[in-house]
């Protein structure tokens, strides 16, 4: 069954206005650009995000997973790899002996500081189609959508 030009146009238009698809496409493109600058960071963008969280403060592994939307099994493997690379370490949570806190190491802190500059450059490149005021506004709107 052939699809006529009107139907093809309608389908194309529906894809062009599908917000979820547009956001996911933009996120995939951004992640690919960030992954290119992360070099040998275990887990690439997900590993980098774990390092960013750990650099802010020691946090329980399960809290990091929820905060970043990473499945707990996948998170365990990512943290194993980050720990092997001596970027983070697991320490017992003093308030719950069943839990572990993920702490960034000195090496991990220096890596995340260096990479944060490179990721910021990628962000600037990624948002270059927008003017400076639009970039600030876009980031504020996305942040608001992501936290409500």
From TrEMBL:
UniProt-recorded Gene Ontology molecular function terms = DNA binding; DNA-binding transcription factor activity
Q: Which Pfam families match?
A: MarR_2 (PF12802)
Spell out the PROSITE patterns in the cross-references: HTH_MARR_2
Q: Which residues form the HTH marR-type domain?
A: 16-147
- What UniProt keywords are attached to this protein's entry? DNA-binding
State if Methyltransferase is listed as a keyword. Answer: no
Instruction: Give one GO biological process term.
Output: response to stress
**Cited InterPro entries:** HTH_MarR-typ (IPR000835), MarR/SlyA-like (IPR039422), WH-like_DNA-bd_sf (IPR036388), WH_DNA-bd_sf (IPR036390)
Record's PANTHER family? HTH-TYPE TRANSCRIPTIONAL REPRESSOR YETL, TRANSCRIPTIONAL REGULATOR, MARR FAMILY
**What name is this protein filed under?**
DNA-binding MarR family transcriptional regulator
* Species assigned in the record: Kribbella italica
């Amino acid at each position: 069954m052939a699809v006529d030009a009107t139907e093809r146009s309608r389908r194309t238009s529906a894809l062009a206005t599908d917000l979820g698809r547009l956001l996911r496409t933009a996120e995939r493109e951004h992640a690919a650009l960030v992954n290119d600058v992360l070099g040998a960071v275990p887990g690439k963008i997900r590993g980098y995000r774990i390092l960013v969280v750990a650099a802010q403060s020691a946090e329980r592994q399960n809290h990091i997973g929820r905060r970043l939307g990473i499945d707990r099994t996948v998170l365990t493997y990512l943290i194993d790899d980050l720990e092997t690379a001596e970027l983070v370490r697991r320490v017992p949570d003093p308030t719950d002996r069943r839990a572990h806190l993920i702490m960034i190491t000195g090496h991990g802190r220096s890596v995340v500081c260096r990479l944060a500059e490179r990721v910021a450059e990628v962000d600037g490149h990624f948002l270059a189609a927008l003017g400076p005021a639009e970039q600030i506004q876009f980031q504020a709107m996305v942040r608001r959508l992501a936290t409500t």
